[in-house]
Amino acid sequence: VRAAAGWVMLALGVAVFAVRLLHAGPYAVPRGAPLLGGVGALLIGAVLLWSAAPRWLGWLALATSPVVLFMGLYATLAEIEEVVSIHATDSTGNSAELRLWIVDRDDGEWVGMPRTKAVEHSLDGARVELLRNGEIRCVVPELHEDRATVKAIHALKVEKYAVARGAAAIGLYPREAGEGAVSLRLDPCPGG
């Protein structure tokens, strides 16, 4: 059982990094919780497979594995379907890559996020780079806060993304947009 768990964790750790290869273009390596989930899964897998590992280390690896397993699975599953990157600047002036699910409507490309995230990255009206399907292009996000639009865009994401539906079914992702959510239409930059 320990060896099987070790191999599963190693495979998950590799998957966290490898899943980004499904998307064409120069996508960055995972950061934050996805990075922690990937590296953690690799380390736990190595400990569980290391036959000379101290007993306490094996128990520690098993005890932490549910949390790391969750982070790694979510990081991997969230990237299986179409994901785009918006290259923006955060409130401290640092470059930030926002990994987002995207939907298309007759009136354009749309993403959704918490209002705080959109404000922190000064997205409304800014010129930012969008990486989609291996192509980088300039877009100007237009922030929409009206509940009808926000709910419609969120519903399209839940409809498009299987992991959103699955996570919503077990209470890890909202079925409907929350009060703090906004939608951004990604308009082409004037003049390209």
Task: Please specify the SSE layout and strand pairing.
Layout: H1 2-18, H2 32-49, H3 55-80, E1 84-89, E2 95-100, E3 102-105, E4 108-114, H4 115-120, E5 128-132, E6 135-144, H5 147-160, H6 162-169, E7 181-188
Antiparallel strand pairs: 1-2, 1-5, 3-4, 4-7, 5-6, 6-7
Helix pairs in contact: 1-2, 1-3, 2-3, 5-6
The gist of it:
46% of the residues lie in helices and 24% in strands.
Mind explaining what this structure looks like?
The chain is an alpha+beta fold. The chain contains six helices and seven strands, in the order αααββββαββααβ. A seven-stranded antiparallel beta sheet has the order 2-1-5-6-7-4-3. Strand 1 and strand 2 (95-100) form a beta hairpin.
- H/E order of the elements? HHHEEEEHEEHHE
Q: What form results from the Cα inertia axes?
A: elongated
- Which percent bin holds the helix content? 40-55%
What is the mean predicted local confidence, pLDDT? 93
What value does the Rg take, in angstroms?
A: 19 Å
Cross-sheet strand order for the largest sheet:
2-1-5-6-7-4-3
**How does the helix and strand content classify structurally?**
alpha+beta
Instruction: Let me know the number of strands.
Output: 7
Key terms:
alpha+beta; 6 helices; 24% strand
